[in-house]
Amino acid sequence: MAQVLVIEDDDATAAEIEACLKVAGHHVRREADGEGGLKAALGGGFDAITLDRMLPGLNGLEVVGRLHAAGVFTPVLMVSALSDVDERIAGLRAGGDDYLTKPFDPGELAARLEVMLRRRGWAAQGAPALKVGDLELDLVRHSARRGDRQIELLPMEFKLLEFMVRNAGQTLSRRLIFETVWGYYFDPGTNLIEVHVSRLRKTIDGPGERPLIHTVRGQGYTIDAG
Amino acid sequence: MPVRTWVQDIWRTTTARLTVLYGLIFALGILALLGVVYWQSALYLNHRADRIIKARAEVFMRAGPADLPGHIRQGLAIDGAEVNIYALFSRDGAPIVGNLGRMPPRLTPDGGTINLPPTPDFPNQARVIARRLPWGEILVVGRDVSQLVEMRGIVLEALAWSAVVIILTGFVLGAALSLDPLRRVRALQAAGREIAAGDLKQRMPVSQRHDELDMFATTVNHMIEEVERLMVEVKGATETIAHDLRTPLTRARARLSRLQHALGEDDPRAEEALWVIDEIDAALGRFTAILRISELEARHRREGFVTIDPADLARQAADLYGPLAEERGVALAALGEGAPIEADPKLLFEALSNLVDNAIKFTPSGGRVQVRAEAGPRLVVEDDGPGVPESEQASVLQRFYRGERDRLTPGSGLGLSIVQAIVRLHGFSLRLEDARPGLRVVIDCADAPVRSGHHEI
Predict the structure, then answer these.
(1) How many Å apart are CA A77 and CA B69, to the nearest integer?
(2) Complex ipTM tops 0.90
(3) pTM beyond 0.80, yes or no
(4) Which of A68, A112, B155, B417 is 20–30 Å from B80 (CA)?
């Protein structure tokens, strides 16, 4: 449960975000313009902010800039109608922690916010034991262990597994995985991510072992000891 | 350009042909003029000679049989220029006195005047007349008309010279006058080729002369403007549709996804919902691709360009698509070492990924796909699948085109358009080749010639 500040000028979009975040159990406060949003954010007490890139008055990039200047580093999810890679990079460079293009599935927004909150959580408390069920990750040796079984992973496989384990229990869309793990912002085409995940699954979920990696059909993938 | 083609082209121009035609007409005019002058002069000279010899014959005939030979001798004696023929023949044609050795064969006494060709007795062209005297002898009087022959010579020479001058001038003038129009036509052709290649910002060059070429160029320019306007409208409409449909589709997908989730895994209706979600995803993918192309086309070149190693990109693409290729039973390999190029690495990687994805998609199990960085520098993606027939290679690059080979394969038909847009943004060029068997797609990264704006003439 977290306190989320939604800075969004479009009422319909704001209502959608609010509804979705409330379902996920978060407290939501909404501000409709840049000045109001900045004031609320500077007031503190929020765990995360969703911020529209285009706002009347102060725009999203300026809001982030001023927050940082004032020493406020609440994680920010930028939401924008501009999907261009350049815009994403500008948004992330200005201090946004993630970037989502309109129109979006509110579920996707909630998932990204969740991922963002967790990342911030590790930073504050130090990395938790990277463990799901009997699967353990060794961040130093970049290897994994399941029970007594030692699992050797390629660098990209380890990166993917680490991302999933860090967000255990959370459904991660293909797009979120591709953007976060690989850092690319285009449509990779034919079930590319599916192949990478199922390959990882073959390595992690050995014969006779309880499956940890699950496909959430129509949505994405999750790792869960269930 | 070879000189031969230039010369051929010059004689194909209207100006050159008209100039030569005018020259020919002029030459015919001069021929007619000189002909008429010659003919009229000949007529006049003959007429004058005839009158003189007739009058002279009258004078001689007034003399008696005894005086006549003396008169003739006297006449010849005072004719220093030797332009006259005076001769007296006996009744049976034997010469009595005068400067003709024998009777001219076609000359009949008391007939008309005839032409006498040069003979040993009188070496010039002459007009002669014969008169029978009352006492039976025959008097022949004639006059030199060799001026006529000289005049004919002069006229012919004038004709020859003027012909030479007219023909030479005609050709030189024709060539000179066509050079400039030809140069302008070349500029028009060059602009036309660029327009045909899809550069609708290009215009036909228009000079300040307002001549027929300018009128033509202006009309074509109006046409292109209209085409460009329509293209922009169609593109705008497509983008608006893509953009506006994305929001409701995304909402519908979210609702459906929640519904499918609520139904649970075992409910057959959840399966239906998933099917619909897949269809919506396909539509959304297409819209995203359309908007992506527009974004790419609107971007400014060389923004965010850095020096990169193409071989590096090839390796990354092979890494990313390796598992997919393996699953399909396709051997994917990255090859080559690269000369560095100036490019936007993320965009170029996107293009390369699209090509690799396509190649894997169209290569049957057991086949191979290579992604190579080659000298040039260029990036090559080659498969040994069914390839693309040469007749289809141009259309494959068109937006939404789905050829014979991908009728059964999912996809938006926009992948290559995205690649094309990225390649254009870089100023590179994209081409398809037959890999015998298979398809080879080449991104030629050699520095494209910097495109100048409008051609000026």
Answers:
(1) 142
(2) no
(3) no
(4) B155
